[in-house]
Design a protein that fits this description.
Number of helices: 9
CATH class of the largest domain: Mainly Alpha
Shape: elongated
Largest sheet: none
Number of domains: 2
């Protein structure tokens, strides 16, 4: 560890390139676990690695270099999520945060709600196409079950089942983020 940082301080591009190549993919996967956005994850990791190249004298590594990199990526991801401004025109945030909070925590701060809301939207985009349509019609467009069923040519029971399944998936995927946010406070 000390050798790598010392060499980077000396401007050794080969050592830095080796550090970059050895850790880049793993760090992007790690960041993507927070951001659910491949491009943003790549940007965060590149920023971290560029920071290391440009400011090696500011590094205060008390653990392993790998742990230090993971911590830097995690912190940048959380800062990125906190910086995103999200509007909640249809009340989707309030409904889903309350639903998720009931299953995880008694209270969630407004800032954390914004972060979780961003993740919920990304999670909804990963749902199967029909489930996405149903969730968006229900929570973004405030349609009733019967309206959704008519529009999509399916039964009301199918709509209810898809909503329940979507809620379970969202809760499962966001639970870990909420736990992380609670431990950060």
């Amino acid at each position: 560890m000390n050798f790598i940082i010392e060499e980077i301080r000396k401007g050794n591009r080969k050592v830095f390139k080796n550090l970059f190549n050895k850790n880049y993919k793993e760090l992007v996967l790690y960041a993507n676990g927070y951001l659910f956005d491949r491009d943003a994850s790549e940007d965060v990791v590149q920023e971290v690695l560029i920071y290391i190249w440009e400011h090696p004298d500011k590094l205060k590594i008390k653990t392993s270099l790998k742990s230090y990199l993971l911590s830097m990526v995690r912190n940048r991801c959380l800062n990125y999520l906190k910086s995103i401004k999200i509007t909640d025109t249809f009340g989707f945030l309030e409904f889903n945060i309350n639903l998720i909070s009931e299953h995880v925590f008694d209270s969630t701060s407004d800032e954390d709600k914004k972060i979780v809301y961003h993740q919920i939207l990304k999670i909804v985009d990963t749902l199967p196409e029909r489930m996405q349509q149903i969730v968006k019609l229900k929570f973004l467009h405030n349609c009733k079950y019967t309206e959704i069923a008519e529009e999509l040519g399916i039964s009301v029971n199918t709509v209810k089942t898809q909503i329940k399944r979507a809620k379970v998936k969202i809760i499962e995927m966001v639970t870990s983020l909420l736990i992380l946010l609670q431990t950060q406070q």
